[in-house]
Amino acid sequence: MSGTAVRIGAEPGRLARVVILSVVGLVFLIPIAAMVEFTFRIGLAGKHTVSHWTDLTNPAKADLYSNLVTAIGNSLTLAVVTVAIVLVILLPTMILVEIRFARLRRVLEFVCIIPITVPAIVLVVGLAPIYGVVVTVFGGDIWTLAFAYGITVLPYAYRAIQSNLGAIDVATLSEAARSLGAGWGNVLWHVLLPNLRRGILAASFISVAVVLGEFTIASLLNRVNLQTALLQLSQSDAYAAVIFALLALGVVFLLLLIIGRVSSSRPGTPRSAS
Predict the structure, then answer these.
(1) I want to staple 234 with a disulfide (CB 3.0 to 4.6 A). Which of 77, 87, 241, 265 is the partner?
(2) Residue 149 and residue 261: Cα distance in Å, rounded?
């Protein structure tokens, strides 16, 4: 067959990349631009004002935003506890499987990926009776919702950490450190964690982004977080609800930029136990 052979797996050309990025950018930017325009609109008259933004600092509306302030604190608490669950439970488990139980790697991956295949509404139905016990043991404080969020963020946190784990030889580094007399605590803290910094940061930021944007679980379990408070606020002040939604979206976008910056940084030489 004559003609130019097409190389399978070749990267798209510059024009194709521009077209793809433009289409994706429009899909995201058009709704965001509409939200921004809505926050300056005066009813259906076609006029615009900045009063909706300046009203956020109006003392007369402090009571209206008090529930939202509480919800923001709740979401930040949930984000911290969820990240702690990921770092205290998931990270050591993945390191242990990588070093000692390599045969269980596929099993762990399967368990961690399952939550992304289960709709949130189905997950809540399964968690509802469990949370009856959780409330009895730990009380009904907002932080207990982090147990459910820890399950929700498992697929994202696992992928972020596993991509970093696969880039370094964890077994060789740990064996070298042990041969030099380092205890397992020193191996974990001084050898493995510095080399897993990128994966840990990415998993943490992704977990925070997921927690800040979660609505279904908190709503059905009757907990107040940022998203449920925004829904309540929209019933009395739609402009303020959209403004705070934009601010939350900006925070999440900033976190994703940080993840991209960390992931694209040039990896350093893996640390040894010397």
Answers:
(1) 241
(2) 25
Look at the domain 62-264 and name its fold: MetI-like fold (1.10.3720)
Rounded to two decimals, the pTM is: 0.78
Burial classification of residue 246, based on how many CB atoms lie within 10 Å of its CB (0-12 exposed, 13-18 middle, 19 or more buried): middle
Cα-based distances in Å from 49 to 35, 38, 41: 14, 10, 6
Beta-strand ranges (E) seen in 143-202 are: none
- Please report, in tens digits, the pLDDT of each residue of the chain (274 residues total): 445 454 555 566 788 888 888 888 888 888 888 888 888 887 766 678 888 888 788 777 777 788 888 888 899 999 999 999 988 999 989 888 888 888 888 999 999 999 888 888 888 888 888 888 888 888 878 888 999 999 999 999 999 899 888 888 787 788 787 777 777 777 778 788 888 888 888 888 889 889 988 888 888 888 888 889 888 888 888 888 888 888 888 887 887 777 767 666 554 444 444 4
- Stated as kind and residue range, the H or E segment containing 24 is helix 14-39
Query: Could you report how far apart the first and last alpha carbons of the chain are, in Å?
Result: 59
Give CA–CA dist 240/44, Å, rounded: 17
Longest dimension (CA), the chain: 78
CB 94 within 8 A of CB 158: yes
Residue with tokens 């050309």: 13
Q: What is the rounded distance in angstroms from the CA atom of residue 164 to the CA atom of residue 105?
A: 15
* CA separation for the pair 264, 262 (Å, rounded): 6
In contact, 191 and 123? CB cutoff 8 Å: no
Composition of the chain by helix, strand, coil, percent to 5:
75, 0, 20
Kindly state the DSSP code that residue 140 receives in the 8-state scheme.
S
Angle between helix axes 154-165 and 91-99 (nearest 10 degrees) is 40
Q: Are the CB atoms for 153 and 206 separated by under 8 Å?
A: yes
